[in-house]
TrEMBL record:
Protein name: FAD:protein FMN transferase
UniProt keyword annotation of Magnesium present: yes
Coiled-coil regions listed in the entry: none
Cofactor list: Mg(2+)
EC numbers, comma separated: 2.7.1.180
InterPro entries attached to this UniProt entry: ApbE, ApbE-like_sf
Keywords: FAD, Flavoprotein, Magnesium, Metal-binding, Transferase
EC main group: transferase
Statement: the UniProt record of this protein carries the keyword Metal-binding: yes
MF annotations from Gene Ontology: metal ion binding; transferase activity
Catalysed reactions, semicolon-separated: L-threonyl-[protein] + FAD = FMN-L-threonyl-[protein] + AMP + H(+)
PANTHER family: FAD:PROTEIN FMN TRANSFERASE, THIAMINE BIOSYNTHESIS LIPOPROTEIN APBE
One Pfam family here: ApbE
Length: 242
């Protein structure tokens, strides 16, 4: 998936947790083999090129395409599984894969952990007894400083922006890269939804503010290209005490 994944697990060492960690890593490698648009042998590449069909792919492919269609409908077309006209559901796959990896650990008894994929995180439980996780959000205009520190339990956090890869997020409604924002960070409960919605919100530009404030399951912090910022009213409640 073109990024680095890491796990932080706060649990007693046990055979079940060790096995679950190996299973979660294997799951992420499986997702990469199936969904990577950079691999000529992946099912998504073969599907995009017409060398196979959905029925011949793993069941997860149909699931992901269904979820992409649902997010696209819910965001008025600001999200698509075909950015630039070519099949590529990466805007949803990473968050979906991370959340599934977290579920594997949780079922094995690792109640307190997080999975981080390129800065998008699924947090479960606590960092220490009675202590929430604390996650720093980098300033997209100066990666050496933080713009905020989010604190929470059982929380998903995803950021879309231009800091790492430039203007690479295409507005499916215009076919052109979105440039109105430098970054937008969304929080919610499930990273599958939060990661995809962060991509859509970035595409929306300034309209994302009204949309995010009306959304019942997310909070948002945005940094515009001109360095101005805004956040939804509930985002303040997630900020860690200094």
């Amino acid at each position: 998936m073109g990024t680095v994944f890491s796990f932080v697990v706060r649990a007693p060492r046990s055979p079940s947790v060790t096995a679950a960690l190996a299973q979660a890593v294997a799951w992420l490698h499986h997702v990469d083999r199936v969904f990577s648009p950079y691999r000529p042998d992946s099912q998504i590449t073969r599907l995009a090129e017409g060398r196979t069909d959905v029925d011949a792919c793993d069941p997860e492919v149909a699931e992901v395409l269904r979820l992409c269609a649902e997010i696209g409908h819910a965001t008025g077309g600001a999200f698509t599984a075909e950015p630039g006209g070519r099949l590529d559901p990466s805007g949803l796959v990473k968050g979906w894969a991370i959340e599934r990896a977290s579920d594997i650990l949780h079922r094995a008894g690792a109640r307190d952990h997080y999975v981080n994929g390129g800065g998008d995180l699924q947090l479960r439980g606590e960092a220490a007894p009675g202590e929430p996780w604390r996650i720093g959000l980098a300033d997209p205009h100066d990666r050496s400083r933080l713009i905020a520190v989010v604190s929470g339990r059982d929380l998903a956090i995803a950021t879309s922006g231009t800091a790492e890869r430039g203007a690479h997020i295409v507005d499916p409604r215009t076919g052109r890269p979105s440039t109105g924002m430098a970054s937008i960070t969304l929080t919610g409960r499930h990273l599958t939804e939060v990661d995809a919605l962060a991509t859509a919100a970035f595409v929306m530009g300034e309209a994302a503010r009204t949309w995010a404030e009306a959304h019942p399951r997310i909070e948002a912090l945005a940094v515009a290209a001109d360095r101005s910022t805004w956040c939804t009213p509930g985002f303040d409640g997630l900020l860690a005490a200094s």
